[in-house]
Write a structure and sequence with these properties.
The chain is α/β, with parallel strands linked by helices. The chain has one domain: TIM Barrel (Alpha-Beta Barrel). The protein has twelve helices and eight strands.
Length: 261
């Protein structure tokens, strides 16, 4: 069986937007289908802030694979063992938060790529082949080419190092975590602040220079989303399940209540 295509990566390579649906509260295996029906390209399974076990995260990954929605797991910084187990069991991408230096970026890239591009151990990975993989060498090469390795830029230090992080072999995306970045800068929540704008410029320029993809997270304001996407952000986290449910439910309750006069 051929490897299941990373449709999110294919969209990025084609110069298109790739839209992420955040999963932090939903546990049902219907979640990838919700994301697909709503028009999203990847499922952001959040083990950093969501209370997912590795088992729960990988069940969502396996459920996502047949839908064409790319399963991407965020683990905590330093939890590379959870990242490789997620990859072994259906994930097609990993997000690592708080990557501040090129040395950290190299450590991440090495851990998540098979030799000769990294040091990842072979012991699985077959879910992305529908459990019918080719030979080990062929599978390792194909998986290396299909997974997305995403470094989050969440501090002023990371922005200052954006060029070197983007230059790191094996890193595909620099994803700005705008909430944490603005907090680190002492301007928490000011997503359109001139320093945040400068950070987006720097990261997007670094990505363009080194052939990588720029990402945007924590921007749910229409004006600034349009701005940063216009500048070149492609890998876009559109929001998360709790936010989507609360917004729709609140709007519906408000409307129905208004009918009572």
């Amino acid at each position: 069986m051929p490897i299941i295509q990373n449709t999110s990566l294919a969209r990025l390579r084609a110069g298109k937007l790739s839209l992420g649906f955040g999963a932090g509260a939903l546990r049902t295996v219907a979640t990838p289908m919700f994301a697909k029906a709503a028009g999203f390209d990847w499922l952001f399974i959040d083990m950093e802030h969501g209370a997912f076990s590795v088992n729960e995260a990988t069940q969502l990954c396996i459920a996502a694979l047949p839908t064409g929605v790319t399963p991407i797991v965020r683990v905590c910084f330093g939890a590379l063992d959870e990242a490789t187990r997620a990859l072994d069991n259906g994930a097609l991408g990993i997000v690592i938060p708080h990557v501040d230096t090129p040395a950290q970026a190299k450590m991440v890239a090495d851990a998540l790529r098979f030799p000769p591009r990294g040091t990842r151990s072979w012991g699985g990975g077959v879910a992305v082949y529908g459990y019918a993989p080719p030979g080990v060498a062929e599978a390792q090469e194909e998986i290396n080419n299909e997974i997305l390795v995403v470094a989050m830029i969440e501090t002023a230090e990371a922005v200052a190092n954006a060029d070197a992080i983007a230059a790191t072999p094996g890193i595909d995306v620099l994803l700005i975590g705008t909430s944490d970045l603005s907090a680190d800068m002492g301007i928490s929540g000011q997503i359109g602040h001139e320093r945040v704008q400068a950070a987006y410029r720097a990261v997007i320029d670094a990505c363009k220079k080194h052939g990588k993809f720029a990402g945007m997270g924590g921007i749910y304001d229409d004006i600034w989303a349009k701005t940063y996407i216009g500048w070149g952000a492609q890998f876009v986290l559109g929001g998360a399940d709790q936010m989507f449910i609360m917004q729709a439910a609140t709007a519906r309750a408000k409307f129905l209540s208004s009918l009572a006069g």
